[in-house]
TrEMBL record:
SUPFAM superfamilies: Nucleotidylyl transferase
Protein name: Tryptophan--tRNA ligase
Source organism: Dictyobacter arantiisoli
GO biological processes: tryptophanyl-tRNA aminoacylation
Subunit structure, as described in the record: Homodimer.
Keyword Nucleotide-binding: yes
Source taxonomy: Bacteria, Bacillati, Chloroflexota, Ktedonobacteria, Ktedonobacterales
Binding site for L-tryptophan: 155
Length: 349
């Protein structure tokens, strides 16, 4: 890993010499493609919030990624603001994090072109998300969907990132980012890009669809019953959990052969912090109905305060626009430093 050059210098409290400690940089983002769901929260945002004090954090709303599939312009514009408000409502603190919109920092697109030229086609051919998302439209989807992992690599590498906290579905993309950084450093100069690592927790890394528990929960799922959004009201949460796919066994237990109930139990486990044994003991002799009612209560308890804060934040749009502009102004010089290093190495400009 290359030497840290850009993280803020923080005084180290409690040491006699007050030696400055350098915080490692964290970068992550979410696409403003639809309704932010429980998977995005448990797999990503919640982890960002929990560790924000330990790191020098940059969080992005990756709107350039959102146009890799067709999206209505008005919806995209509104989604960006909604997502920013949700980041803050979930607990991101601007004292510890920089928060910005990807398309407001043109260096993402600039580095993207350069890095595309250094990405072997064979590496992109191995990316499973493209195959899942393109489905039967392989020949008609835009090339941007195919090149999506390169843009994601640029997002991460522009900020000389050490850690990328994401869900399990992004593991392959972060590995590609690391490989691209290494390849570029080897060709030109070993210290151009910091080599990033994915930070993927065991709990919540892959929340599954409520309709088809063999598929991950996704914003782009055409069926809203497949996910719980962070803005679903208690009635909606109750309805979606009640109809969530389980099985005919009726024993409330973690069992890989029963992915539906296991997914719901995993969500319950994260929300309550209980062990698997404790949960199974609590529901011994009870049915899926009792368990689903308890899960609904925990979800409402978790999401209600987020929704309350969200409503306050989204109602002051001027303040929200301002803080996003400030975020972009803050990160742009960091991104520009990397672009300059890259252009110089390649011989551009
Ligand atoms: P889309 O369907 O538009 O790709 P998405 O739900 O996959 O939407 P992304 O914006 O691609 O969401 O991902 C945002 C973050 O949420 C990433 O860190 C990703 O790994 C994480 N994430 C997405 N879905 C899940 C899930 N089901 N479980 C855990 N983490 C998830
Ligand atoms: Mg996704």
């Amino acid at each position: 890993m290359s030497v840290e050059t850009n993280a803020e210098i923080q005084p180290q409290v409690g040491t006699q010499s007050m030696k400055p400690a350098v915080k490692k940089r964290v970068f992550s983002g979410i696409q403003p493609t639809g309704n932010i769901h429980l998977g995005n929260y448990l797999g990503a945002i919640r982890n960002w919030v929990e560790t924000q004090d330990q790191y020098d954090n940059i969080f992005c709303i990756v709107d350039l990624h959102a146009i890799t599939l067709p999206i209505d312009p008005k919806e995209l514009h509104a989604n960006v603001r909604k997502l920013a408000a949700l980041y803050l409502a979930c607990g991101l603190d601007l004292k510890s994090c920089k928060l910005f919109v990807q398309s407001q920092v043109h260096q993402h697109a600039e580095l993207d072109w350069i890095l595309n030229c250094f990405t072997p086609m064979g590496w992109l051919n191995r990316m499973t998300q493209f195959k899942t998302k393109a489905g039967s439209e392989m020949d008609t989807v835009g090339a941007g969907l195919y090149c999506y992992p390169v843009l994601m690599a640029c997002d991460i590498l522009l900020y000389q990132t050490h850690y990328v906290p994401v869900g399990d579905d992004q593991r392959q993309h972060v590995e590609l980012t690391r490989d691209l950084a290494q390849r570029f450093n080897n060709i030109y100069n070993k210290s151009i890009f910091t080599l990033p690592e994915a930070q993927i927790r065991d709990a919540g890394a892959r929340i599954m669809s409520l309709e088809d528990p063999t598929k991950k929960m996704s914003k782009s799922d055409p069926n809203p019953s497949a996910y719980i959004t962070l803005l679903d009201d208690p009635k909606m949460i109750k309805k979606k959990i009640a109809r969530a796919t389980t099985d005919s066994e009726r024993v409330v237990a973690f069992d890989p052969a029963r992915p539906g109930i296991t997914n719901l139990l995993s969500i319950y486990q994260i929300l309550t912090g209980q062990s698997q044994q404790e949960i199974e003991a609590d529901f011994e002799g009870k049915g899926y109905g009792d368990f689903k009612a308890a899960l609904t209560d925990r979800l409402v308890e978790t999401l209600s305060p987020i929704q309350q804060r969200y409503n306050e934040i989204i109602n002051d749009m001027a303040a929200l626009e301002n803080l996003l502009k400030q975020g972009a102004d803050d990160v742009r010089p960091i991104a520009e430093r990397t672009v300059q290093k890259v252009k110089k190495a390649v011989g551009l400009g």
